[in-house]
Design a protein that fits this description.
Mean pLDDT: 83
Number of domains: 2
Order of helices and strands: HEEEEHEEEHHHHE
Number of helices: 6
Oligomer: single chain
Distance between the termini: 47 Å
Structural class: alpha+beta
Helix content: 40-55%
CATH architecture of the largest domain: Sandwich
Largest sheet: 5 strands, mixed
Strand content: 15-25%
């Protein structure tokens, strides 16, 4: 009788562990972003992760690595996939406008205490998920994935470098009194810079992320060339000065977010 009771109790324990296993696999609390719950849908083949920001600070970037536990031909574990989000742009736009940033958008700033649902694709229920990078609005980070962290820094730094190049080029065009159309002169130089930048096709380093920023700036400057683009009075040179002043403000706001301080692991 005692043996039967013991076996029943033991089976109950194992059943509880089995039921909790999917949640436990995803609940490694080493960052301020927690995976609170985990649910697999066999019809859509998706895993719904309920994320909770328990850090006490706003999160502007995070990475979640997921793995289905599969192995390659030689029996080695296949590398995990990565889901990286970075809402630095939303923060900068809000700061430029002097307004509170929008924290309700699914891909926007992840407010302190807020929850969010993230859907990951998965072949079956064996998928595992882990938060291994969290970057906060105060330019600090919890880093368990050096590759993801390096990628965030490279992208941000590359964009900053592109903006600095645009600012430098535009300032020089404005300072040259012999140039009647500083916007067109800046575009011409930036297009040559873009050609050289594209030769370094490596997104893993900052220089390899400059092209996107340069292309965006060139498009903006060319759009400003269109007739009647500006509704305000003033010369073309006046409008370029206004553009570069705005750009310099953005550079000053972005710079601290490329110099992230890594926090000690919990």
């Amino acid at each position: 009788m005692k043996r039967t009771i013991f076996l029943v109790a033991l089976n109950a324990v194992w059943l509880a562990v089995a039921l909790l296993a999917p949640i436990l696999r995803a609940q490694r609390q080493e960052t301020g972003l927690i995976i609170q719950s985990w649910k697999y849908d066999p019809e859509t083949k998706g895993v719904a992760l309920k994320l909770v920001n328990s850090s006490g600070k706003d999160i502007i970037a995070y990475n979640i690595s997921d793995s289905d536990g599969s192995r390659d031909y030689y029996g080695r574990p296949n590398p995990p996939g990565e889901h990286l989000e970075d809402a630095l742009g939303s923060l900068i736009i809000a700061q430029m406008s002097g307004k509170e940033p929008d924290k309700d958008k699914p891909n926007g700033i992840f407010a302190s205490g807020a929850t969010r649902t993230l859907i990951l694709g998965a072949k079956d229920i064996s998928v595992k998920a882990m938060v291994d990078l969290v970057v906060y609005a105060d330019a600090t980070a919890e880093v368990l994935n050096e590759h993801a962290f390096s990628q965030v820094v490279a992208i941000r730094t590359g964009q900053l470098m592109a903006m600095q190049k645009v600012s430098e080029t535009t300032h020089r065009a404005l300072e040259d009194a012999t140039i009647t159309n500083p916007g067109a002169a800046a575009v011409e130089k930036l297009k040559r810079e873009l050609v050289e930048t594209k030769k370094l096709n490596n997104p893993e380093v900052a220089e390899g992320n400059r092209a996107v920023g340069l292309q965006s700036a060139i498009a903006d400057l060319e759009r400003y060339q269109q007739p009647n683009f500006f509704s305000k009075k003033g010369t073309e040179r006046d409008h370029r000065k206004e553009y570069v002043e705005d750009l310099d403000k953005r550079i000053a706001l972005i710079l601290p977010h490329t110099q992230i301080r890594v926090l000690e692991s919990k």
